[in-house]
Write a structure and sequence with these properties.
Layout: H1 6-9, E1 21-29, H2 35-45, H3 58-61, E2 67-72, E3 75-81, H4 90-97, E4 109-116, H5 119-122, H6 131-139, E5 148-152, H7 161-174, E6 178-180, H8 193-211, E7 216-218, H9 226-235, E8 240-244, H10 245-248, H11 250-258, E9 264-268, H12 272-276, E10 282-283, H13 285-295, E11 299-301, H14 313-324, E12 334-338, H15 346-353, E13 357-360, H16 363-366, H17 372-387, H18 392-396, H19 400-409
Parallel strand pairs: 4-10, 5-6, 5-13, 6-7, 8-9, 9-11, 11-12, 12-13
Antiparallel strand pairs: 1-3, 1-4, 2-3
Helix pairs in contact: 7-8, 7-17, 13-14, 17-19
The chain binds 2-carboxyarabinitol-1,5-diphosphate and magnesium ion.
């Protein structure tokens, strides 16, 4: 099969204007003899082309063609004229630059690895309302710059609202900053959203006044009535909402962000690996994370490099950097490291990604032999040790909670 007007969609001498074109980097595998045709098909299918010539209105859409301007081995670079995109819409961007193309029969594998976005297009997105600096201000950690500590109430599902509030309280009382629902806890019959939220927010207030530290709860509003759930959290004094951004989709995420709730958004990435895990096909986590930043999440799970989930430290660092480096008008996102973590991993996480991270341990807090409160203390002590430039083993000599944690799980170098 040959895409019509191939020449419109490939020009290896073309020099894109970085102010006027979005540049996408693809990995593509196809029959060797058909690389140019497939690359042109990729640009055609994601812009103005189809499989057969059209005979109407040629002039009006000519300037909207995406153009392949570089092919190097399996790597293909495509420039998209900005007028092809709807302002501020991640769903439209994906339907365009990451839509039909993954199903093209002739292309064996295709992966959107990365993209760069001009200021004119970035400005059409809201980005995070708070961003990393805004979230630090809420927790009053902007001066110390220490990593934030958090937990996920465990077990993932099964506790009733009262039990959830009690476990959350213990974690905050132990010294943690942040407690969140798990990705698969929303509004099931054993733990109704409307019953859980007031109880956990009360526990949060109690821990806050007892410890004198700022504490935040992230209720998972993922579902089909997220605006109503966000309103409910707001009405009960919540400061944060959590969304499983990939299961609900970017349109739903942007809808909630654009309503300006005055609560920061914690983004869980459940299901991302169905899209990101194959290194030859799909969309990279880096690209998904950049879209989450444009959409306006304030905190995003980026992986750990040391925990239970797939993803090497080098790749996670690249995502972390993309969440923090200047991006036109868009604020930085607070990276969340989560998944199989325990206090003994804190020095390695800080060495890899620096201090602007949220260290979130579920099992690594609640599974502490002393229970949730002691587990929370151990994680906070691990952060204190790093801030005081002491090794965990040194610090643990005078901090029994940390000592027990590293006795249980060890220290990761
Ligand atoms: C972590 C977690 C998170 C994962 C998701 C879980 O619990 O609550 O959802 O971190 O992975 O359910 O596994 P544990 P990622 O601390 O007990 O492992 O952040 O990579 O998306
Ligand atoms: Mg989870």
């Amino acid at each position: 099969m040959k895409y019509a007007n191939q020449g419109h969609y490939i020009n290896l001498k073309f020099k894109p204007d970085l102010a006027k074109h979005l540049i996408a980097d693809f990995y593509m595998e196809c029959p060797k003899s058909q690389v140019k045709m497939c690359a042109a098909g990729l640009a055609a299918e994601s812009s103005t082309g189809t499989w057969t010539p059209l005979h109407h209105h040629q002039k009006s859409f000519k300037n909207l063609a995406a153009i392949v301007f570089k092919i190097s081995g399996n790597n293909v670079k495509v420039a998209y004229p900005l007028d092809i995109f709807e302002a501020g819409s991640v769903p439209q961007f994906l339907s365009d630059a990451a839509g039909n193309i993954f199903g093209m029969k002739i292309v064996k594998n295709l992966r959107l690895n990365d993209f760069t976005i001009p200021a004119a297009y970035a400005k059409t997105f809201k980005g995070p309302a708070f961003g990393m600096p805004g979230v630090r201000k809420i927790f009053r950690t902007d001066k110390t710059g220490r990593p934030h500590t958090g937990t996920i109430v465990k077990p993932k599902v099964g506790l009733n609202p009262k039990q959830t509030a009690e476990v959350a309280y213990q974690a905050w009382a132990g010294g943690l900053d942040f407690v969140k629902d798990d990705e698969n806890l929303t509004d099931q019959k054993f733990c109704r959203f409307k019953d859980r939220i007031p109880l956990v927010l009360d526990a949060c207030d109690r821990a806050q006044s007892e410890t004198g530290e700022k504490k935040v709860y992230a209720p998972n509003i993922t579902g089909v009535d997220m605006a109503e759930r966000a309103q409910y959290v707001k009405d009960h004094g919540g400061k944060c909402i959590m969304i499983d951004i990939l299961t609900v989709g970017y349109g739903a995420l942007q809808h909630i962000r654009n309503m300006n709730w005055g609560m920061f958004i914690h983004a869980h990435r459940a299901m991302h690996a169905a899209i990101t895990r194959n290194s030859k096909h799909g969309i990279s986590m880096l690209a998904l994370a950049k879209l989450a930043r444009l959409s306006g999440v304030d905190q995003l799970h980026i992986g750990t490099g040391v925990g239970k989930m797939q993803g090497q430290a080098q790749e996670i660092k690249q995502i972390h950097d993309a969440m923090n480096k200047p991006l036109h008008n868009i604020k930085p996102v607070f990276s969340v490291c989560s998944g199989g973590l325990h206090p003994g991993m804190t020095p390695a996480l800080v060495r890899y990604y620096g201090k602007d991270i949220v260290i979130q341990c579920g099992g690594g807090v609640h599974g502490h032999p002393g229970g949730t409160k002691v587990g929370g203390t151990a994680l906070r002590q691990a952060v204190d040790a790093v801030m005081k430039k002491q090794t965990l083993k040194q610090y643990a000599k005078k901090h029994i909670e940390l000592d027990t944690a590293i006795g249980q799980w060890g220290v990761v170098k």
